Amino acid sequence: MSDALPQALVDHAGSLLAELMQFEHPADQVVQYYTKRHRRLGARDRAQLADVVFGVLRHLRRVQAAATDAGDADVLIAVWLSGAWQRVDAAGFGAGVAADMPDWLLARWPWADTPAEAQAMAEAFNQPAPLDLRVNVLRGKRDAVRAALAADGIETTPGRWSPLALRVVGKPALQRHPLMADGSLEVQDEGSQLLGMLVGARRGELVVDFCAGAGGKSLQLGATMRNAGRVHAFDVSAGRLSELALRAKRGGLSNIFPMAIADEHDPRLQRLAGKADRVLVDAPCSGLGTVRRAPDLKWRYRAEDIAPRVAAQQSILAAAAALVKPGGVLVYATCSVLAAENEAVVADFLATHPSFSLDPALPLLARQGAALPPDARDTLHLDPLHHATDGFFAARMVRQA
């Protein structure tokens, strides 16, 4: 396989992988900075380069097991391109190598009752993620948008769960497509769309997206509310919020109000205390449910890194709960697969906030057209093996009137 890439690109792959394996910064940022420094790399070169290094990161343990020097990036690239890593008897190295997961994470691997299912789950997380789009209901209906894309040679399939989702077939150029430019479409994983649906926002309500990030769910909530009411989008990063107003205008939304806050205790939040109909807390987390897109996360995190995240999540959830009015809804969500960041945080919150109680997730989603497989739990669990989405967790809670 090594002759499939020009030697110059193989050399670039080794250099880039060496930078990535320092695991100091998110992989997508490292790749972006690297390609900016090497401007002679064309679009096809950049795509091939990213495919190679992300492939190594997804299957790092097996690639290293097949390598003569597990710490030499050039050797690892050679092993990847030769396909030798696929011939490794992973069982002889232990479960972590077979699963291409760190041992500590495999020990906490979620939502799998048998070793075979755990292995299948790992393999699902080790596949590249597809590209999902959310149709902006203010701009058009899903079938019409899908037909317009097809007319331009872009094939999509309807989402399995979200009535707003389209999954792109292949890797067409979409960024400059008119339907992206006019806000008819937004890039958003189908699982993330289900989290937005779980909020159940209605017209005329006051809704808070407490950890809005770049604001994808804020846009979804605002469109669901048909521009009637207010969506307050808060985040501690002004940079992440910076494009939200422009994206809202592009999508025909006038009910989105972004504001950067110092932290969850920002005194400006007090004006909304006890007034919000619905509050979404998409909490900062390990992100380990997104390793299909960011395989470096598996190697960047250690077991001891989780506890500080949990403490922050507990504080943020408690602060956000103070904004919910009696009878209002609070949704806690993460893109993590770890019980410590998910079920344990919710259990701690409910134990210390008796005015809140769990509201089963699946019936509400079903009423909105998202008929997920049966689950005995009241909380929402999504993963690539069972749902073909990223890994997500969500709990919907209601404050007693």
Number of strands: 12
- The 3D shape can be described as globular
Mean pLDDT: 95
Strand coverage percent? 15-25%
Kindly give the count of domains. 2
Q: What is the CATH topology of the largest domain? A: Rossmann fold
Derived from helix and strand composition plus strand pairing, the structural class reads alpha/beta
Separation of termini?
Answer: 64 Å
**Main sheet specs:** 8 strands, mixed
Low-pLDDT runs? none
CATH class of the largest domain: Alpha Beta
Number of separate helices: 19
CATH-assigned homologous superfamily of the largest domain:
Vaccinia Virus protein VP39
Note the topology:
Blueprint: H1 7-20, H2 27-37, H3 43-58, H4 60-65, H5 73-82, H6 95-99, H7 103-107, H8 115-125, E1 131-135, H9 142-151, E2 156-158, E3 165-168, H10 178-181, E4 185-187, H11 190-199, E5 205-209, H12 216-224, E6 229-235, H13 238-241, H14 244-250, E7 256-260, E8 276-282, H15 297-300, H16 306-321, E9 324-334, H17 343-352, E10 356-358, H18 361-367, E11 380-382, H19 384-387, E12 392-399
Parallel strand pairs: 5-6, 5-8, 6-7, 8-9
Antiparallel strand pairs: 1-3, 1-4, 2-3, 9-12, 10-12, 11-12
